[in-house]
Specification:
With 251 residues, the protein is of the alpha+beta class. It contains seven helices and seven strands; from the N terminus they run αααββααββββαβα. It has a five-stranded mixed β-sheet, with helices on one face. Strands 1-2 form a two-stranded antiparallel ribbon. It is globular, with a radius of gyration of 18 Å.
């Protein structure tokens, strides 16, 4: 997948959803936020990542200090500001070099890591905006599947940190199976708890709990945007394990 092109596409689509609604509309899946706050969060986040890459920052950077971190008050200018942030990140990565090590909240990663991270930040928050406005959420199975994988990588990297409880007990497994044609092994994930760590892999396997449905529904369920009961996902096995996983993996 061309993550840079996908980031620009999702950023544009997110902006169009925001543009179609009243900026004061509450976003139920982001409690306490309005559409305008959601736009600021996404736009500032892209500029934050761009500044980290451009300045070769090697430590946490307070997002409140980011250059041009607030959108203009004019709605059209705010959308242009949103799109400019995504382009700024892509330009920063190209100038730094895709493999240049930079700071991330998971430790040092290649600069291009931020492009995929910000892509799926837009992917999920586009869903937040669409749900808030009662709009459709048309994304491809391939994009949804990649977003699930990116999320699982983050969960696995952060699990057990800061004395936080693991989302699974030792030996427990969760299997996700996307039913969309053509995804193959990329549409199946098995998550395992081993000691004090979480790992995952692609491919068909059994889990103590298994979820089977289309990739978009699985993504929205995994990131806690839509309850499984409101989708066509079939759940097999120990549903309490799935609920425990959800309770300990906030997006």
């Amino acid at each position: 997948m061309d993550y840079a092109a996908a980031l620009l596409e999702q950023n544009r689509a997110f902006g169009e959803v925001i543009r179609s609604g009243d900026s004061s509309t509450p976003v139920p899946t982001c409690p306490g936020w309005s559409l305008s706050q959601l736009l600021r969060h996404v736009g500032r986040g892209d500029r934050w990542a761009a500044q980290i890459v451009a300045d070769r920052v090697d430590h946490y950077l307070d997002p409140r200090t980011v250059d041009e971190g607030k959108p203009p008050p004019d709605p059209d200018e705010a959308i242009a500001w949103l799109h400019g942030g995504a382009q700024r990140l892509i330009d920063a990565v190209e100038q730094a070099g895709m493999e240049t090590p930079v700071w991330t909240f998971l430790g040092s990663r290649p600069a291009y890591w931020w492009v995929r991270r910000r892509l799926h930040e837009a992917t999920v928050h586009r869903a937040d905006a669409a749900l808030a406005l009662g709009l459709d959420y048309p994304i491809t199975p391939e994009l949804a599947a990649d977003a699930i994988g990116e999320w699982l990588e983050r969960v696995a990297a952060q699990a057990g940190g800061d004395d936080a409880p693991l989302p699974l007990d030792n030996g427990q497994t969760v299997h996700l199976h996307a039913t969309d044609p053509g995804l193959g092994a990329a549409g199946e994930w098995t998550v395992r708890a081993e000691g004090n760590r979480i790992s995952w892999s692609h491919g068909h396997d059994k889990g103590a709990v298994a979820l089977r449905g289309n990739a978009v529904d699985l993504l929205l369920a995994v990131v806690r945007r839509v309850p499984v009961a409101d989708t066509d996902i079939a759940v097999f096995g120990e549903t309490a394990i799935w609920q425990h996983w959800l309770d300990h993996t906030p997006f």
